[in-house]
């Protein structure tokens, strides 16, 4: 499906003010004019996002069937452990910040387990001193919203009196990414010097998912990268940490609703790699 017109002003982590780059992956300032229905794919990932959106609804649907998770243009999202479809007809604008999930916990101090509620509004994350931020973002011109949100995030960081993220969560997170999910939870807990139960409890609070779910997502992400390089599926499965191709096919269908060979035929465009979007680094605050 050909994407509709869009405008983005995006910031990279290395361009952010001191301290934010540790937690924030990117900022995107967007605007979609009214037009035909656009459907995008959101693949499993390890990024939390806060989207201050304004205008017409953006529906988030399951891959299999039409189960609707949300219809609000403004939303908060945990890392996606299953693929979903995002559908809209334009007439929507706003700004989205993508963060490491423990970064979201560090900045906002809200347990990530509370982000699961479909009606959780991004404004509920903000302290009283920033409650006017959604109005200012809605009124701002496209291209200015990313800077406003970055300044607000920096203010939250500067007001933070003590770190919120547990050291064992940081240790386990780094190990998960270093191994691309090819590590069991018992080993993660041992490396983090805590029990498996303690690690799982802290992950649910500060990441939003247990470590096993993040490991599976990382293996899936690695496999998808290898598959897009044209590597045979049997080799993809082994190199990404699956038992064999049948195991990979099973997990892939469980997470996306289709098999690895069926996904390209859906015509869905990965929201994270949408062609035609122009990027401009946001100026550091």
Please outline the helices and strands.
Elements: E1 7-12, E2 24-32, E3 38-42, E4 48-55, E5 59-62, E6 68-70, E7 75-77, E8 84-88, E9 92-99, H1 101-108, H2 133-139, H3 145-159, H4 167-178, H5 185-191, H6 196-206, H7 211-228, H8 233-240, H9 245-256, E10 269-270
Parallel strand pairs: 3-10
Antiparallel strand pairs: 1-2, 2-9, 3-8, 4-7, 4-9, 5-6, 5-8
Helix pairs in contact: 2-3, 4-7, 7-8
Task: Tell me what you see in this structure.
With 285 residues, this protein is of the alpha+beta class. The protein folds into two domains: 7-162 and 268-273; 167-256, Arc Repressor Mutant, subunit A. The chain is 34% helix and 19% strand. It is built from nine helices and ten strands. It has helices at 101-108, 133-139, 145-159, 167-178, 185-191, 196-206, 211-228, 233-240, 245-256, and strands at 7-12, 24-32, 38-42, 48-55, 59-62, 68-70, 75-77, 84-88, 92-99, 269-270. A five-stranded antiparallel β-sheet has the order 1-2-9-4-7. A five-stranded mixed β-sheet has the order 6-5-8-3-10, with no helix packed on it. A hairpin with a 5-residue loop joins strand 5 (59-62) and strand 6 (68-70). Helix 2 runs antiparallel to helix 3 (145-159) and helix 7 packs antiparallel against helix 8 (233-240). The longest helix has 18 residues, at 211-228. It is globular and about 50 Å long. Residues 1-15 and 271-285 have low confidence and may be disordered.
């Amino acid at each position: 499906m050909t994407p509709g017109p869009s405008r983005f002003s995006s910031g990279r982590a290395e361009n952010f003010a001191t301290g934010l780059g540790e937690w924030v992956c990117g900022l995107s300032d967007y605007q979609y004019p009214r037009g035909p229905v656009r459907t995008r794919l959101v693949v499993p990932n390890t990024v939390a996002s806060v989207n201050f959106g304004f205008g017409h609804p953006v529906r988030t649907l399951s891959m299999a069937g039409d189960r609707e998770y949300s219809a609000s243009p403004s939303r908060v999202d945990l890392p996606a452990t299953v693929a979903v479809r995002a559908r809209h007809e334009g007439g929507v604008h706003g700004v989205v910040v993508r963060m490491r999930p423990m970064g979201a916990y560090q900045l906002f101090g809200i347990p990530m387990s509370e982000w699961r509620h479909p009606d959780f509004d991004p404004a509920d994350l903000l302290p009283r001193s920033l409650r006017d931020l959604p109005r200012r973002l809605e009124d701002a011109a496209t291209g200015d919203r990313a800077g406003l949100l970055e300044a607000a995030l920096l203010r939250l960081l500067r007001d933070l009196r003590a770190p919120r993220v547990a050291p064992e969560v940081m240790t386990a997170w780094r190990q998960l990414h270093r191994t691309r999910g090819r590590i069991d939870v018992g080993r993660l807990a041992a490396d983090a010097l805590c029990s498996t139960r303690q690690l799982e409890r802290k992950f649910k609070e500060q990441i939003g998912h247990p470590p096993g779910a993040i490991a599976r997502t990382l293996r899936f992400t690695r496999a998808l990268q290898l598959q897009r390089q044209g590597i045979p599926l049997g080799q993809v499965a082994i190199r990404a940490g699956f038992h064999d191709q049948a195991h990979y096919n099973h997990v892939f269908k469980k997470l996306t609703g289709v098999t690895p060979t069926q996904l390209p035929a859906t015509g869905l465009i990965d929201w994270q790699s949408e062609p035609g979007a122009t990027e401009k680094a946001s100026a550091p605050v």
